[in-house]
């Protein structure tokens, strides 16, 4: 199965474009407010109604621990499938607030996805193991002008995060100013989905999403996955052949 493409949108119109162009997850946030700025629950409910269960809908609730409980309840009522909670390792109250949220949330109605902003560090295996009840987890960048995630975090560190998250049974995601050039190396690490905003837009993350941009990245994810799978099969075939000949 090829990794899913998460398209971050800010309204129903953009959601319709992303959905029609093949996005696998519709992600709701306000791009002008940063990486994790929440949209209004009313707007989220409108998008959920339009998507009508065709793909999962996620919504961010920001990175303010004092708002986690209230916004989560509102987003649950809006009908979203996944709630993205922004976390910073240097903010102990946020991790504690997340733990309380995971105990209180109705996991039958919504999945919780802790999103770690790399500027404040990347969680280790022990930290990820503490996320009992989380649906998944992902990395993102707060500063979108500082470069794409793979340029700022060594590949070995990204792999370690993904491996630890998978060991904990978490669905894994990577985001942060990603573009088409970032897809091949990231897919080799095996994330479950990749998140995009700026690369889907006409002229930067604050402009409108374009269907052709979404289709291009969806096709790139699929192509790279097929190529990697065929490469693995060919490697196994050669290994069998070499053993047989020997």
Q: Which helices and strands, and how do they pair?
A:
Elements: E1 4-9, H1 12-20, E2 25-28, H2 41-51, E3 57-60, H3 68-78, E4 82-87, H4 92-104, E5 111-117, H5 125-129, E6 136-140, H6 149-152, H7 155-167, E7 171-174, H8 183-187, E8 193-196, H9 211-245
Parallel strand pairs: 1-2, 1-8, 2-3, 3-4, 4-5, 5-6, 6-7, 7-8
Helix pairs in contact: 1-2, 2-3
Question: Keyphrases for this structure?
Answer:
globular; TIM Barrel; alpha/beta; disordered C terminus; 16% strand; 9 helices; 246 residues; eight-stranded parallel barrel
Helix proportion of residues, in percent? Answer: 40-55%
β-strand amount: 15-25%
Terminal CA distance reads: 34 Å
Strand elements, count: 8
What does the overall shape look like? Answer: globular
Largest sheet: 8 strands, parallel, barrel
In CATH terms, the superfamily is: Aldolase class I
Rg from Cα: 18 Å
Topology order in helix (H) and strand (E) letters: EHEHEHEHEHEHHEHEH
Which sequence of strands runs across the widest sheet? 1-2-3-4-5-6-7-8
Secondary-structure class: alpha/beta
Number of domains: 1
Mean pLDDT, to the nearest integer, reads 90
CATH topology: TIM Barrel
Tally of separate helices? 9
Low-confidence stretches: 226-246
CATH architecture term: Alpha-Beta Barrel
Kindly provide the name of the CATH class: Alpha Beta
């Amino acid at each position: 199965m090829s990794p899913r493409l998460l398209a971050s949108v800010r309204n129903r119109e953009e959601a319709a474009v992303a959905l029609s162009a093949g996005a696998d997850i519709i992600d709701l946030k306000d791009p002008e407010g940063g990486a994790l700025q929440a949209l209004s629950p009313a707007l989220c409910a409108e998008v959920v109604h339009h998507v009508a269960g065709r793909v999962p809908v996620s919504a961010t609730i920001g990175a303010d621990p004092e708002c986690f409980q209230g916004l989560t309840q509102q987003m649950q009522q809006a009908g979203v499938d996944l709630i993205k909670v922004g976390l910073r390792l240097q903010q102990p109250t946020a991790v504690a607030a997340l733990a309380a949220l995971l105990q209180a949330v109705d996991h039958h109605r919504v999945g919780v996805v802790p999103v770690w902003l790399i500027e404040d560090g990347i969680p280790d295996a022990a930290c990820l193991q503490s996320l009992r009840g989380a649906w998944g987890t992902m990395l993102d960048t707060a500063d979108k002008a500082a470069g794409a995630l793979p340029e700022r975090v060594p590949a070995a560190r990204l792999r370690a995060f993904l491996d630890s998250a998978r060991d904990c049974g978490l669905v894994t995601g990577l985001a942060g100013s990603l573009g088409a050039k970032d897809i091949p190396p990231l897919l080799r690490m095996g994330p479950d989905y990749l998140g995009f905003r700026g690369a889907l837009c006409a002229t930067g993350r604050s402009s409108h999403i374009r269907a052709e941009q979404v289709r291009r990245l969806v096709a790139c994810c699929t192509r790279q996955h097929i190529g990697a799978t065929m490469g693995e099969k060919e490697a196994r075939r050669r290994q069998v052949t070499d053993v047989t000949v020997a």
